[in-house]
């Protein structure tokens, strides 16, 4: 086991000094935030080269988060995937239950180095919010989490966790009342309070340096997985598969494999009710380049640049943008992105639960559904690593309603009627 | 056809020659309807505004507070399009002969096409654009097309802007400089930050000679007079929108914004 869990990108080819990954990225921010964003870039650059920062972060990642995370082979699940071997990178076993803590601890240390006393963050499913609230409790920082009102309802457990940890949770009622609107509100807060507040951004989007910095904090996922696979399977995988909302867990898994040309990098976007219905959040499949939340990337938008409302059963993937490095990987052909419907993800969630005793987050279930497809394409010689980015506890209410797992509940009975077509094989 | 950059410059110079600050009003296009919005702008000019900024409503107005968010929502639900924004500019300018700018987030222009947008805005008689989320470093393409079509590029500066950034911004900006009075989003405030005067002083210190107009938080004649004491122009947005939102019917909304423009116009002439 390495003693080192912080791996800033060694290649340093992208992004450029201006924060561009090819045609994507940059810094499209109001003048009021320029000084603060520049400060983050300068402080991160200093921290990246400071052995004391690496030492502190490593200590937290080992003794607080529980790194390295396990790599679990799932043969009973893989039997449904044409016999390919499938390994899960168990980010769900990290403290707080998802990969989000990797980035949060890094930025919390940075917050302290910048002398700021308050942290704000957006959250969709609540995993980034919980991780941020956790780090703020640990570091004694004031914490405000912005969460779309719809998401506070479908992820009520995580709202309670954040409040238990001492964070203020603000339910955002504007726009589509989901992740995008939570980010808008966090930006409004940041502009007003930037002198003492750090915006602990939760994904690989936003203005430079966030896409590169958040990626660096998550690179550990792929670095560990690559090493673990070489030990366990004796070779590199044919494909690395991850779900993509903003794209942080996916870039974390992919990045260490980018130089390995034989490893396909496959991102699974939320197709919601199906791309053709328009009710989806599959940004790379159905979007066009544009500017959202501080950088140029693919965006779900209309012909006049208005952002369209996304939809996914998964609150964490319900976002009309995507990190710029994914747009770059897509356009360069190094990354492949496919769309997975709500139904396919929920089937994969149940399959993993029943075959392996692991209940994944609905976000991660999109990657599992993608892996089943990829496995069938590769055949029995295939070797796949999937990022199991989070655990499913937070999603039990959604899953119970979807599959009809509650005994008595009139509301649930009504919901069951809506999902009648999958009900039959759910039982 | 060339845009009205020069008209904007001349208008601000004329106010200065009168020994007063200019009054610049903001109203979103399509709010409450396209025609109703045009009527509101004409009323604000009639009340005494020197310049109007027409907002291009956006789905994700991250720099706007609840008042302008609400107006944008109403306009977008009403189906406002960029063509309607252009019509608003054209009719408001044609009816009054005054300079009309557009204020917009960058993505609509990026998506619509910079050349197409600047050509249409110039053709409509627009004077220029304020682009609050397009930093100077990303603005070269826009400026090339804006200059070609005779449109001003108004950049925003903030109390957090360091002197070297103020120099970079004023070196390439045109029309005027929009000085944000405080760190925050749009909306009315009890008082205008003390930071505003200092920011105006530092912005003038770059020696660009561009007029410096102050916005964010100004809602009444007293504040307007105070700001007019140190700035070349006073920008008021949310207070107008709020009058429209609070009015029981459209006609009283129009009367209310005309009245407010009149009070503010007195304010900018009565320097504190």
Topology:
The complex is a heterodimer of chains A (427) and B (272).
Chain A: E1 20-21, E2 24-25, H1 31-48, H2 51-65, E3 71-73, H3 75-78, E4 85-90, H4 100-113, E5 118-123, H5 127-139, E6 142-148, H6 149-154, H7 156-164, E7 168-172, H8 179-193, E8 197-199, H9 210-232, E9 239-243, H10 248-254, E10 264-272, H11 283-286, E11 288-292, E12 295-299, H12 324-332, E13 335-341, H13 342-356, H14 362-378, E14 383-388, H15 396-403, H16 410-418, H17 420-426
Parallel strand pairs in A: 4-14, 5-6, 5-8, 6-7, 9-10, 9-14, 10-13
Antiparallel strand pairs in A: 1-2, 3-4, 11-12
Helix pairs in contact in A: 2-4, 4-5, 4-9, 5-7, 9-10, 13-14, 15-16
Chain B: H1 5-17, E1 22-28, H2 34-47, E2 51-55, H3 66-77, H4 82-96, E3 100-103, H5 106-112, H6 114-123, E4 128-130, H7 140-148, E5 152-154, E6 156-157, H8 163-172, E7 177-180, H9 195-204, E8 212-215, H10 221-228, E9 233-236, H11 238-246, H12 250-269
Protein name (chain A): Tryptophan synthase beta chain
Catalytic activity (chain A): (1S,2R)-1-C-(indol-3-yl)glycerol 3-phosphate + L-serine = D-glyceraldehyde 3-phosphate + L-tryptophan + H2O
EC number (chain A): 4.2.1.20
């Amino acid at each position: 086991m390495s003693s080192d869990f912080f791996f800033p990108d060694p290649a340093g080819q992208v992004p450029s000094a201006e924060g561009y990954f090819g045609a994507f990225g940059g810094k499209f921010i109001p003048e009021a935030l320029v000084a603060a964003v520049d400060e983050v870039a300068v402080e991160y650059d200093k921290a990246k080269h400071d052995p004391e920062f690496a030492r502190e972060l490593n200590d937290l990642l080992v003794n607080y988060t529980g790194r390295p995370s396990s790599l679990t082979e799932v043969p009973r699940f893989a039997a449904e995937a044409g016999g390919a071997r499938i390994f899960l990178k168990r980010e769900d076993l990290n403290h707080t239950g998802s990969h989000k803590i990797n980035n949060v601890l890094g930025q919390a240390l940075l917050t302290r180095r910048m002398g700021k006393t308050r942290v704000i963050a957006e959250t969709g499913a609540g995993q980034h919010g919980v991780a941020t609230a956790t780090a703020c409790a640990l570091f004694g920082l004031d914490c405000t989490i912005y969460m779309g009102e719809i998401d506070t309802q479908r992820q009520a457990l995580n709202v309670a966790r954040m409040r238990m940890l001492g964070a203020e949770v603000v339910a955002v009622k504007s726009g589509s009342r989901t992740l995008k609107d939570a980010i808008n509100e966090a930006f409004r807060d940041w502009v007003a309070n930037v002198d003492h507040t750090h915006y602990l951004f939760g994904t690989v989007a936003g203005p430079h340096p966030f896409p590169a910095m958040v990626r660096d904090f998550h690179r550990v996922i792929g670095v560990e997985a690559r090493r673990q696979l070489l030990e366990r399977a004796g070779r590199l995988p044919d494909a690395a598969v991850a779900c993509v909302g903003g794209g942080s867990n996916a870039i974390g898994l992919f990045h260490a494999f980018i130089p390995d040309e034989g490893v396909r990098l496959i991102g699974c976007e939320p197709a919601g009710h199906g791309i053709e219905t328009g009710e989806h959040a599959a940004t790379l499949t159905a979007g066009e380049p544009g500017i959202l939340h501080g950088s140029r990337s693919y965006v779900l938008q209309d012909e006049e640049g208005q952002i369209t409302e996304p939809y996914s059963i998964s609150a964490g993937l319900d976002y009309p943008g995507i990190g710029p490095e994914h747009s770059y990987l897509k356009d360069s052909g190094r990354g492949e992105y496919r769309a997975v419907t709500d139904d396919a993800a929920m089937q994969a969630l149940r399959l993993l639960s029943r075959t392996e005793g692991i209940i994944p987050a609905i976000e991660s279930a999109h990657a599992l559904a993608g892996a089943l497809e990829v496995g069938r394409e590769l055949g029995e010689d295939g070797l796949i690593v999937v990022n199991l980015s989070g655990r499913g506890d937070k999603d039990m209410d959604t899953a119970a309603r979807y599959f009809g797992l509650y005994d008595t509940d009139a509301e649930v009975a009504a919901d069951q009627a809506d999902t009648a077509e999958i009900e039959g094989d759910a039982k | 056809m060339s845009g009205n950059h020069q008209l904007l410059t001349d208008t601000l110079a004329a106010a200065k020659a009168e020994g007063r600050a200019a009054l610049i009003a903001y109203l979103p296009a399509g709010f409450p309807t396209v025609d109703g919005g045009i009527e509101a702008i004409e009323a604000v000019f009639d009340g005494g505004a020197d310049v109007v900024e027409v907002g291009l409503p956006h789905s994700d107005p991250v720099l706007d507070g609840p008042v302008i968010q609400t107006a944008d929502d109403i306009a977008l639900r009403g189906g406002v399009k960029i063509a309607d924004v252009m019509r608003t500019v054209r009719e408001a300018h044609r009816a009054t002969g005054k300079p009309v700018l557009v204020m917009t987030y960058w993505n609509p222009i990026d998506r619509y096409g910079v050349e197409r947008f600047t050509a249409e805005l110039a053709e409509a008689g627009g004077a220029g654009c304020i682009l609050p989320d397009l930093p100077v470093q990303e603005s070269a393409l826009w400026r090339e097309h804006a200059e070609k079509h005779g449109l001003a590029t108004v950049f925003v500066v903030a109390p957090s802007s360091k002197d070297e950034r103020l120099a970079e911004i004023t070196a390439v900006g045109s029309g005027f400089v929009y000085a944000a009075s405080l760190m925050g989003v749009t909306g009315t405030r009890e008082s205008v930050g003390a930071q505003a005067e200092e920011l105006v002083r530092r912005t003038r210190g770059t020696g660009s000679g561009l007029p410096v107009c102050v916005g964010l938080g100004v809602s009444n004649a007293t504040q307007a007079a105070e700001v007019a004491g140190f700035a070349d122009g006073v920008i008021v947005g949310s207070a107008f929108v709020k009058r429209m939102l609070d009015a029981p019917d459209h006609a009283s909304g129009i009367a209310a914004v005309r009245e407010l423009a009149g009070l503010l116009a007195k304010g900018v002439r009565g320097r504190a």
